[in-house]
Request: fold
Amino acid sequence: MEPVEGAKGESSQQLTMASPWILLEKDVFNPQNERLLEIIHVWKTGKKRKNSILCVVVAACRPIQLFLEKVKKADRGDQYKMTDRWPLKDLKLVDGKNVNQECLEFELQFDKVYKWTAVSADEKKAFIRCLWKLNRRYLSSSIAFVSIPSCMLEGKQSLQEVGNASAETGDQAEHSAYQEMTPKETADMLKLMEEYEPIVNNSMAFAEKLSKDLQVLDEGNGQVPARMQQASELISSTHGPYHDDLLPYTPLMAWLKNANPILFHDLPKVYAWNLSRLYEREIKAFFELARMLLLGRTKECFPEGLDKQVACGSRQHPRFCLADSREGEEDEPDRGNVVKMLEQVLRELQPLCIAEQRFIEQFFMLSQDAAAQEWLGLPATSKGGKDVAFPEKSHWPKTKTELEEQPTQLLSEIFSSLEPELRGFIDTCNKVQQFSCLQVLVTLNDYMFEMQGSSAATSSSFLNVVLSNILLLAKNNFNKCICVLCKEIEEAKVPSKAKGGILPFVSRFEEFVNFSEDVFRWAQQRGELDKAHTKLVGSVFSSINSLASANLKVNTDMVMMENFHHIHCFLYQKKIQCLENKRREAKQRYHEHLERYVTKYLGQPLEKLNHFFEGVKARVALGVKEEEVSFQLAYSKQELRKVIEKYPGKEVKRALDTLYRKIHKYLSPEENLLPVVWRAMEQEFIRQYQEFENLIQRCYPESGITMDFTVEDLLNYFISVTQSSM
Reply:
């Protein structure tokens, strides 16, 4: 039993004597989500020896944050506690105190100078070297290092020794089945291995830390949707810090590309396959939040509210009906929200795609500059004096076109979910409100126009391809919308109970033009809109013309007169260049129907007198001499006197008053055409009166027959009727 008890005691002692590194990670840094990089046991120089531990740590967050923390043992037990903490970016100076490597003292200058004495020279070397590497990699060499041997920082001596040993080993393997590395390649590889010596020497610790990092990454990825929705801010994820972590390995990638092209050829594909899964989750969460913010709804009610709306371009779209009802519009989101959200989506996607494209071009040497630097950077001979074998012609950098196609193809795999998600978001934008497809078209068109004039156009060929496809989709949606609207205008049925006024499809056309002109006010291009305007106004004119055969309860000429007048005034106000011909045509059609309307209604006050003189003019037209018309039985002087006696001045005034009220009843007040029509009636009435008087003088000379009222009487009748109705 004694050996067993001894074994138990030894195991317990091993747990008690666990290394400070393990205890520090377990008790201090892991709970704070931090990772330990280096430690050094010290005490304050010139003071009574009271040991503490200085720890270099990195926080598990992005961007990278480095700290120097001082810990010491708690009063009881083996646990540690942190007593001081300094951001490493605030460190200004590291003073080794003496070029002698055996000196244990050193100083660190933050806001004040801290003087320390290390327990051992090896710990001091490792600690200062760790600070030096972090300074070069993450702090832009902002920390000054003084009184420190260069070999302590760069390890030149150990590199030379390892290099010589590797060269000897290479000579012994001359007849090996593997191709021998050149001295240049050996030196490059050893330099990389030396730079990452702490990680290589402790492979188990490296694997464990890498596993933890990947686990943490799977967790800044699973929480992306929740964090974005909680913040209610549309911000795309950034992978810049991860790119920064990988870029230092670019020389290793260049060496691998030259040493084993077949293996290197598969690496971009592996990278794209893994990144595509990450981007798929992030992009899906990004667009889900974008839809919620666009509609101004919570996630729970988002699908239900969206399903109630019909896709743009559908004939059943409620926004395209010609009814006057606008129920539910007050619940729609702000119409400027479509432009705002789409612009924000595009602004967030551009740096994401550009950053990823620049990284893969640099890391995998896919750009023209990177490829040229790779080959031009190889010297003709190595340090050992041996010739360097240049790559075969087939391995030289490809043409510019080939180098542009390769990153685009790789990015298409990485961002395979981007275009489908963007198409879905465009579809949501089109459903938000009436004519949203115009806002989508203008926003995309202007964004592409601005990109072509900026450096982003050459920086992201992949994004150009995606946005070009989306712009084509927006144009197709816009054209479908116009086709549906044109067809509904042409097939519009005027209600049988309609009493005239502005027709619903004319108001609809006016509504579309007002909205579209507002959207395209500052647009870079408006060719698509001009085509749409021309097509729509043609459908409007066609539908108005079809009213001539419609069975309306009111005068058709009156309805056509009012609507053509309305279109003319509207287009004159808008001053749309492509519709100027249609504006002039509308003015002409308005005058034609005004004349017809006045002529028809003017025969009613003096109907029998008008018929009598129409017959007189017909006889003259058939060849009867004017002085012989009175000998016709139906148009004798006696018949003329009978007709004239039926229209005394009072009756004419009463008839004009009745006519005025009738016109006033059927003319729409919004056009305010009553004064215009009444003025035209007055002028036409006087013209006819003068024509009747002229016919009496020519066909019934010296008969003494005259009308019962004069021109002055007629003018007074019109004035009196107008004033009485006011």
